[in-house]
Amino acid sequence: MDVEFQHISKNFGQVQALTDVSLTARSSTIHGLIGENGAGKSTLMKILTGYQSKSSGSILLDGVEAQLNNPSQASNLGIGMLYQEPMDFPPLTVLENFSLGTPRQSRQELHFALKTLSIRFGFDLDPDLPVELLTVGERQQIELLRLIHCNIKVLILDEPTTGISPAQKEALFPALKQLAADGLTILLVSHKLEEVANLCSEVTVLRHGKLTHHTAAPFHFPKLLTAMFGFVPKRKDKGSARDKGSPILICKNIEASGERQGLHQCDITVAEGEIIGLAGLDGAGQSTFLRLAAGLISPDQGKVTLFNNSLPHGAKAYIRAQELHTSFIPADRLEESLFAGISLRDHFSLREEHGMFWQSRTRTRQRTEEAITTFSIKGTPEDLAEDLSGGNQQRLLLSLLNRNSRLILLENPTRGLDIQSGQWIWQHLRDELSPDTAIIFSSPELDEILHYSDRIIVFHDGNIVLDSAVADTSHGAIAAAMTGMREGTP
Amino acid sequence: MKKLIIDILLGSLLVFSFTSLVLLIAGAPVLDAFKHIWLGAFASSIKISQVLSVWVPLTLCSCGLLFTFRANLWNIGIEGQVTMGAIGAMAVLRIPGIDPTLTLCLAFLTSMLCGGAWGLFAGLLKTRGGVHEIFGGLGLNFVSQGFILWLIFGPWKRPGIASMSGTELLNRKLWLASLPGWRVATAGIIITITILILTWLFLQKSRLGLKLKAIGQNPKAALLYAISPERYYLQSIFIAGSCAGIAGFIQTTGVYHRLIPSISSGYGYLALLLVMLSGYKIVLIPILAFFFASLNVGAIQLPIVLQLDSALAGVIQGCCVLCALFILGIRHDR
């Protein structure tokens, strides 16, 4: 079945997630869809599977406009999706999971169907095992067989090789090729260029919700990378390079769990005054590293040393890190760092008045008013945190930072901010804080990292794949490292 | 404010029409029933003092629950905390040969400690053992119920006979005094009003109140402000348990003058509903507690005067709560 997206746009309130995207995926082909995080790939696929509605445009299936208002309509039209995280029922057995959503059949028939399909694709699945005992790759195989058994015509794969073993990958790829040869339309969402090159006959690149590139095999990698990440912006007013002092954060042989892949063999030394940008695709290990340095999670192996003190294990680590002048600001402001229904003044009271029994209204009010002026927060001391805009919430968080902080850890500090607010935040961080303060931040925007940091560390699947001064590396090398390719691969 | 008044009017209307419907189904004369509830609660100073003696434990438990609800804890165990408070008080009151006033003071403190400790127990189960406070509290309610039954039928039984009617009556000197003509312990009322004021002060003016609010809203973020959620969970549930313990003390020394199996009388559970109805606003607590108390006492008349089933009082209370929650739910959706 041919799938034709025509001029699809989607906006979430003020945010434009997709702008006029048109592409056609033909039957019997595998069509790659690539782009950075937040480029709009998932949104486009969610529109096709009926999970989200489109703002404008239309979708044609075999030339006929399709109504895709909810997931069951999409699935009735033969559209199936294999999700990145298995969407199955862990306590049920393989056969039970396989039988869900399929036409009513007897147990014998289902058993036979599962067996036949397994043999056809070379999968080895025990029908009676509960799914929770299986690996992600095996669960994905069940899901794939189930979709095929449901007679789908369009198959969407979202990062299908995340979390599966190389052997499972070797079983998956021929299966996909075989399915395409049988007439299925396959849409492959991925950020791994090698896989896309291996499987797809056509590739579409999205960037910031717009289609930036469309090409058929063979693929020219530099062109694809440029389309994915854009050009290196001219670096202006970068600010003077800062002097590096003595080491303040030392991570040695760290193994930790968190996010998708955890963190492996992580060795990082950070010196006074450094500004370090952490790059990598979403969930590659940056957030785990920041939380590790902040003492919010403890390593399974290895040691974190802050200002010559090794961090204790467990819940005390975070309090200790704060005593050692380390501050952390998470990306999710209302979820993790502010109290939605509490006033700005009370935030200052919570932050500052330790060891006092009564709240002192006048003192904190004065303090809040000072902060509102200094940080140009649009709000009054009695406003609730949830009533502030994202930019003002971030300013509030910065104003709440311990002014004696000497290591500041920021998770995506300009998330959801417009350019102006983002620039204000950075100006404050660079200019207002003492120059021997070290700043480590993660960001999905490569431009932001290149622009503001002196050193860049790139994570891929929980490993550090690049650690270099920004001046000594190139946009291309970073982009390649983010997608898991070593420098020098075409 | 205008909205609130409309909601209250609407809620009352709903409560009355729904209750009327229930009374009609039960075959009772509706207006007569309401009249008797009213008379049952307010006809004489004795009736009013009965209402007040229900108002006291209800208000005390509600005050305690305001602390736990603030930290977003569901302290279902409040019922058991009342029971343990009563047991703690009784344990002291049974000690012979001390000055009665001193005994009462000691019993008061012990009841606070016992109730608080019972709350702390549920809290520790949560913070250390990962047992949700609802299940921990519910389990501890059963344990305390078993404990009080064992005491009444075992070590503390009346000389000669063990009976459901409870332990032996306390020495008159150990009864909390009441004004002539009033059947409610004056000290109980004074203590309750004091606790109300203290609760208001703590929740509105102290940093403890603010911290509990912060933790209730976002325990994850609290950590970033160097506030340990576990510590404040324990503090709030200890305070709630202490308030409940005081209620147990007053039930023992001011109402029943002995230990009975149902010393907590379900006031803990009722207080949970009451606090939710109040929208966690302390100004509404004494008013709502008075309303529930008068309904509770007034409805006792119904089976006697109108030959209605004695369960009807409970049904009416349930209707009130459901109607009010319904109104609250609508208000929330708007």
What's this, in brief?
The complex is a heterodimer of chains A (490) and B (334). Chain A is α/β, with parallel strands linked by helices and 490 residues long.
Question: What layout of secondary structure does this protein have?
Answer:
The complex is a heterodimer of chains A (490) and B (334).
Chain A: E1 3-12, E2 15-25, E3 30-34, H1 41-48, E4 56-61, E5 64-65, H2 71-76, E6 79-82, H3 94-99, H4 107-121, H5 136-149, E7 154-158, H6 166-181, E8 185-190, H7 193-199, E9 202-207, E10 210-216, H8 221-229, E11 247-256, E12 263-271, E13 275-279, H9 286-294, E14 301-306, E15 309-310, H10 316-323, E16 326-329, H11 333-337, H12 344-352, H13 361-374, H14 390-400, E17 407-411, H15 419-432, E18 438-442, H16 446-452, E19 455-460, E20 463-469, H17 475-482
Parallel strand pairs in A: 3-8, 3-9, 6-7, 7-8, 13-18, 13-19, 16-17, 17-18
Antiparallel strand pairs in A: 1-2, 1-4, 4-5, 9-10, 11-12, 11-14, 14-15, 19-20
Helix pairs in contact in A: 12-13
Chain B: H1 2-25, H2 30-42, H3 45-70, H4 78-93, H5 100-129, H6 133-153, H7 186-205, H8 207-217, H9 219-224, H10 229-256, H11 267-277, H12 284-298, H13 301-306, H14 312-333
List keywords for this structure.
heterodimer, A: 490 residues, alpha/beta, Rossmann fold, 6-stranded mixed beta sheet, 34% helix, globular, B: 334 residues, mainly alpha, ABC transporter involved in vitamin B12 uptake, BtuC, 14 helices, 75% helix
How would you characterize this protein structure?
The complex is a heterodimer of chains A (490) and B (334). Chain A has 490 residues and is an alpha/beta fold. Chain A folds into 2 domains: 227 residues, P-loop containing nucleotide triphosphate hydrolases (Rossmann fold), CATH 3.40.50; 236 residues, Rossmann fold (3-Layer(aba) Sandwich). Helix content of chain A is 34%, strand content 25%. Chain A contains 17 helices and 20 strands. In chain A, helix 12 crosses helix 13. The radius of gyration of chain A is 25 Å and the shape is globular. Chain B has a single domain, classed as Orthogonal Bundle (ABC transporter involved in vitamin B12 uptake, BtuC), CATH 1.10.3470. Chain B has 334 residues and is an all-alpha fold. The model of chain B has no long low-confidence stretch (mean pLDDT 90). The longest helix of chain B has 30 residues. The chains are: A alpha/beta (490), B mainly alpha (334). At the A-B interface, helix 10, helix 11 and helix 12 of A face helix 8 and helix 9 of B.
